[in-house]
UniProtKB/TrEMBL annotation:
GO terms for molecular function: ATP binding; ATP hydrolysis activity. Gene3D superfamilies: P-loop containing nucleotide triphosphate hydrolases. The keyword ATP-binding applies. It comes from Melghirimyces algeriensis. The keyword Magnesium does not apply. Keywords: ATP-binding, Nucleotide-binding. Residues 2-224 form the ABC transporter domain. InterPro entries: AAA+_ATPase (IPR003593), ABC_transporter-like_ATP-bd (IPR003439), ABC_transporter-like_CS (IPR017871), P-loop_NTPase (IPR027417). Pfam families: ABC_tran. This is ABC-2 type transport system ATP-binding protein.
Length: 300
């Protein structure tokens, strides 16, 4: 298990991390999500030892540290060399030699889907291929903890597919993964745990299933041509959501039944009436009052 204990970091007067505490259980995929500038990269640079000056502590309990593979956002490859040579170079740095080195490079080339391009010069590769190779290089020494910083930004769908496969394979091998992204769907599909970051703070963290359950059952979704017309006849608090509205409630089944009754009484046919099942993006919205996608698009 990896424990981040009350970690703070400032760049001059800019406080990038503010008393951040997290527990990352061994063998899990842990998602870090938040808008641009929320402190994600700073946090993982501290965890991976790149930033050494900070307040608080990072503790490895029960052998998670072992070895660490950190894949930064920026590609760091030897562009004039082949894919295989790049992998072998990183393997050599970590002490691999001879047939062990060759076999490992072959295995990684297969995993990242570049076996048929093993002899290709990296500068001729697409952005997605380079990113896959960059990940492969960080895996040559078979690390126990793998940190991926925004691994799918700007990559083609085929590369994204390979990256998801790599993560799933690492999960099956029992590795601990920290997956940084601002794509909610990726975190929801790949990770077991998530921490939401905003302005240097952790606004919520926990097991994704548990979080979704906790934030579910607090609202009913209602969609109709003119929902206000009907809803104003009852005592409902509602806010626009996608093409309908969500009605906040402590008792969703009761609210659901009231809405059915109200609709019948006024011979009103809703287009959709359902218990609200939140996705991670809805949880983030409820926590921060902002839409991560909007913020990220503004920041990009
Ligand atoms: N080397 C640095 N010098 C000064 N300020 C920095 C530095 N690195 C990050 N910051 C600032 O610290 C804050 C957190 O940045 P950080 O890169 O950790 O966030 P992030 O969530 O990873 O964002 P992004 O998704 O854009 O990478 C931001 O305000 C950023 O401008």
């Amino acid at each position: 298990m990896l424990q981040v204990e009350k970690v703070s970091k400032s760049y001059g007067t800019n406080r990038a991390l503010n008393n951040v505490s997290l527990t990352i259980p061994k063998g899990t995929c842990y998602g870090l999500i938040g808008p641009n500038g929320s402190g994600k990269s700073t946090l993982i640079k501290i965890i991976s030892g790149i930033i050494r000056s900070y307040e608080g502590g990072i503790k490895y309990v029960g052998g998670v540290k072992g070895t660490l593979g950190y894949v930064p956002q920026d590609i760091s490859l030897e562009e004039k060399l082949t894919a295989r040579t790049n992998l072998e170079f990183f393997g050599q740095i970590h002490g691999l030699r001879g047939s062990t080195l060759k076999k490992k490079a072959e295995q990684i080339l297969k995993d990242i889907g570049l076996l048929d391009r093993a002899g290709g010069i990296v500068e001729s590769f697409s952005g997605g291929m380079k990113r896959r190779l960059n990940i492969g290089c960080a895996l040559m020494h078979n690390p126990e903890l793998i940190i991926l910083d925004e691994p799918t930004v700007g990559v083609d769908p085929q590369s994204r597919h390979y990256i998801f496969n790599i993560v799933n394979k690492l999960k099956k091998q029992g590795k601990t993964i920290i997956y940084v992204s601002h794509y909610m769907e990726e975190i929801e599909n790949l990770c077991d745990y998530v921490a939401f970051m905003d302005k240097g703070n952790i606004v919520e963290e926990g097991e994704i299933k548990e979080l979704l359950n906790r934030y579910a059952n607090t609202a009913v979704y209602f969609e109709a041509e003119n929902p206000t017309k009907l809803l104003s006849k009852g005592n409902f608090t509602f806010t626009p959501y996608k093409t309908g509205v969500i009605i906040q409630t402590n008792d969703p089944l009761k609210t659901f039944t009231e809405l059915v009754q109200l609709s019948r009484d006024h011979q009103f046919i809703p287009e959709q009436l359902s218990l609200f099942k939140p996705r991670l993006e809805d949880v983030f919205f409820q926590l921060t009052g902002t839409d991560l996608r909007d913020q990220s698009e503004k920041g990009e």
